Amino acid sequence: MTRDDASLRRFLHGLPGVDRVGAEARAAMLSTRSVKTTAKAQAIDLAIRMVDLTTLEGQDTRGKVQALASKAQRPDPGDPTCPATAAVCVYPDLVATAKQTLGASGVKVAAVATAFPSGRASREIKLADTRDAVAAGADEIDMVIDRGAFLSGHYAQVLEEIVAVKEACARPDGGAAHLKVILETGELATYDNVRRASWLAMLAGGDFIKTSTGKVQPAATLPVTLVMLEAVRDFRAATGTQVGVKPAGGIRTTKDAIKFLVTVNEVAGRDWLDPDWFRFGASTLLNDLLLQRQKMATGRYSGPDYVTVD
């Protein structure tokens, strides 16, 4: 792909337009699908394994991150069959704390970078932010695109910045942190823009495309995620490369999570029903998943003190 605005504009604006009414109607239809009890139990465990347990507040402390990382490894200390989450997502300065607490558990450390959540900083600062997080041990980097540049049609600028951040994810051992590209869909205004931004991020080498920072509303809506799932499906058909999807922000209940999993299965396909290819960015979802899991195991709901207050 030529890295100039004219070529990118022709390509991105040549993508099929999104039928807004059709996308919203299909998302609404998929959200009504019923799930049998056995399938629900499997879906809950899968959703737990897909959670990026997240704390991104100015008041975050080392103690809070240590507690969150411990919870990620053993979400339900009273039930050793409960799976661990996929990752813990923190600010770059707390990566080392999360990494030390998680040890060899297999739970990944994700770090938000590139002047999260606004993305308003020079490229040099964004790259330094990324390199610092990788040097501290981050397994994954969640970057934000420059929405102002994208909405102004400066597509080459956005693409080049993603490429540069991807290069900054390299580690001295020859490996690299996986790159999740946050589109901040709540600021993109249209489904067509969501599709274009998704393709732009994938063309630039993003390993995942992510809906939101969680700081802007609306965040991870089902129709927006459906459009992004269509994009990764079509991108794999066109290029042979599979890219993951991460809805983040506003997904709080087991019922919501299952709606997303049904949509993944129906739109992208079963290949994406895996933590390597689909994640939930969430801080409160895990607790509801645990309460529902306990309900299915015992036949009754536990009190609110069964789960920790994160």
From TrEMBL:
SMART domains: DeoC. The keyword Cytoplasm does not apply. It comes from the Bacteria. Its EC number is 4.1.2.4. The keyword Membrane does not apply. It catalyses: 2-deoxy-D-ribose 5-phosphate = D-glyceraldehyde 3-phosphate + acetaldehyde. Pathway: Carbohydrate degradation; 2-deoxy-D-ribose 1-phosphate degradation; D-glyceraldehyde 3-phosphate and acetaldehyde from 2-deoxy-alpha-D-ribose 1-phosphate: step 2/2. Pfam families: DeoC. Gene3D superfamilies: Aldolase class I. Keywords: Lyase, Schiff base. Belongs to the DeoC/FbaB aldolase family. DeoC type 2 subfamily. This is Deoxyribose-phosphate aldolase. The lineage of its organism: Bacteria, Bacillati, Actinomycetota, Actinomycetes, Propionibacteriales. The gene is deoC.
